[in-house]
Each structure stands twice: as C-alpha cells, then as structure tokens.
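dumping this here before i forget
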Amino acid sequence: MLFLVTEVSSRGSVFVRLRPDERSPHRYSFHSFDFLGLNHYHADMESLHAPWRIEYILAPKPQLDTSLFTRIAQSSDDEANRVIARDRTCFALLNTYPYNGGHLLIVPYKQVADLNGLTEEELADLWKLTRRCINALTQVMKPTA
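structure:
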C-alpha cells in the first residue's frame, strides 16, 4: 500500500511523495512520477545529512496493524503527534526528524495510491491546507529564498 504525502519546506517548496511501506518510514519512492530522465542525481548535487535521525533509523520498529498516518489521524493527542492543523479530509503535522526547520507533511485521511484516488473535494482540501501551512510558515519563519 502506498501513502501519499505532501511536504512543505520552510522555504515554501511543495513536494509530493509516495511512501511505499510503513515498515520502512525513511524510504520514499517516486515510481509513479515521470521525471523525464532524472533517474540519477546530478554530480554537483549536495547530499543532505541529518545526524539526529540515525537513532530513529537504527532503532527496531514494532510490527503494527495500522499505518503511522492512520494511527495519527485517529489519535486525539495532536501535541504528541506534532499535528498542527486538521481539516475535514486531511491534516498537517511536523516531521519528527526534519532535514530543515519548518518541514511538515500534509496527509489525507483516506489512504490512496496517488492523487487520482482522491475526490475533487479531498484534493481541493489538501491543496487549501497546503496553502494555509505555507502562509503560516512564511509569516512565522520569514524565508528569504
């Protein structure tokens, strides 16, 4: 099962990624997107390194019956789950191990393979919440890039 995740960086960039497997939360896949030959990294591309993530990456992961996002969606403990906004069809949460400050995720409540699995209303809600979060990040963090 794939989980659609929309990420918004503190600079206002929006990334849509498909996360293939709950048991491997640090892996992302772009197999459903056509990047016109961009199947390798450019030689000048700088690798990101976030050493604070290593404890989580190496820690044993429990086998769970539900996905991370389903558990967060159904939880009422938004503070512990870093949920910053909830809408009718989606919610926003801060990344626990971000590469950059302000990195957050916009997640639909419905688990779908890709954007085509969302209704027009759900898709509109997802992008409206994304825009709200970008505006909030811009106001609070005042990015310059």
